[in-house]
Amino acid sequence: MEAQLRTGLVGAGPWARAVHAPRLADHPGIRLTSVHTRRAEAGRELASPYCAEAYDDFDQFLSTVDAVAFAVPPEVQGELALRAVNAGKHVILEKPIAGSLEQAKRLADAVEGAGVASLVVLTRRFAAETQEWLAGIARAGTWTGGSAKWFSGALLGGDYSNSAWRHSGGALADIGPHMFDLLDATLGEISEVLAAKHESTTDLWHVMFGHATGAVSTASLSMRMPVRPTLWQISVFGEHGYRELATNNSTGADCYTALLDDFLAMIHSGTSSHPCDVHRGLHLQRLLHEVRHRAE
């Protein structure tokens, strides 16, 4: 077995504690060595069960790792990930990858220049059932259109209801990248935002996309609807009929482990290209920017 990849984690919020830290620590090809947080106490609390070291100083933290996983708000990630990449570190990025389109462009350019591996945590793309569904859609041929929806009450209560950046960005920032990515992967690259509307009371977004293939799709998203459990679905239709993906057999933790497998494979093979790499993150950031502009 090759030496384990020394990996650090930035952030100590609910998602970092529930998924990033335990899955990084459990993966046979990875050693969770270091944690960096804004609050020293939170870092020590997260690091201790995994025999990792907590660091207040980000540069000192970087000196101890070969790769960094981020679980912090987009604008913080955009700044710190740029420093990590410029230090030659491979990166696992949450979505959106940055706080603005300009920041995302700088990060993508830096990754390209450094030649490091990058993956964006587009969780559902790494689910076995999603990959099987996408393969079947591709084998069938061309589709005319599709739709996606995600309704939950995640911002009304629960583990993530106190997340300031999620309240600020809403469903568009948190859920939009996941669903837009799936529509794009299913129907071909999204080339145009045809329409967008935002209803602020329930944070309900309605978006219509044009795809380079000529297909048209729609997405409806909200994280402030009294719906439990979360309702999500993606479908396509056309001359081959109608097909829907609404299963959720793989947990977020399962998907993250599959992502780590791909991440290690990229590093060991010396490749920086992947369907969910930083360039995918930049494409999705551009869509978020255009949707917001269209809804104004």
From TrEMBL:
<protein>
    <submittedName>
        <fullName>Gfo/Idh/MocA family protein</fullName>
    </submittedName>
</protein>
<dbReference type="Pfam" id="PF22725">
    <property type="entry name" value="GFO_IDH_MocA_C3"/>
</dbReference>
<keyword id="KW-0560">Oxidoreductase</keyword>
<feature type="domain" description="GFO/IDH/MocA-like oxidoreductase">
    <location>
        <begin position="162"/>
        <end position="241"/>
    </location>
</feature>
<dbReference type="InterPro" id="IPR036291">
    <property type="entry name" value="NAD(P)-bd_dom_sf"/>
</dbReference>
<dbReference type="InterPro" id="IPR000683">
    <property type="entry name" value="Gfo/Idh/MocA-like_OxRdtase_N"/>
</dbReference>
<dbReference type="InterPro" id="IPR050463">
    <property type="entry name" value="Gfo/Idh/MocA_oxidrdct_glycsds"/>
</dbReference>
<dbReference type="InterPro" id="IPR055170">
    <property type="entry name" value="GFO_IDH_MocA-like_dom"/>
</dbReference>
<feature type="domain" description="Gfo/Idh/MocA-like oxidoreductase N-terminal">
    <location>
        <begin position="6"/>
        <end position="117"/>
    </location>
</feature>
<dbReference type="Pfam" id="PF01408">
    <property type="entry name" value="GFO_IDH_MocA"/>
</dbReference>
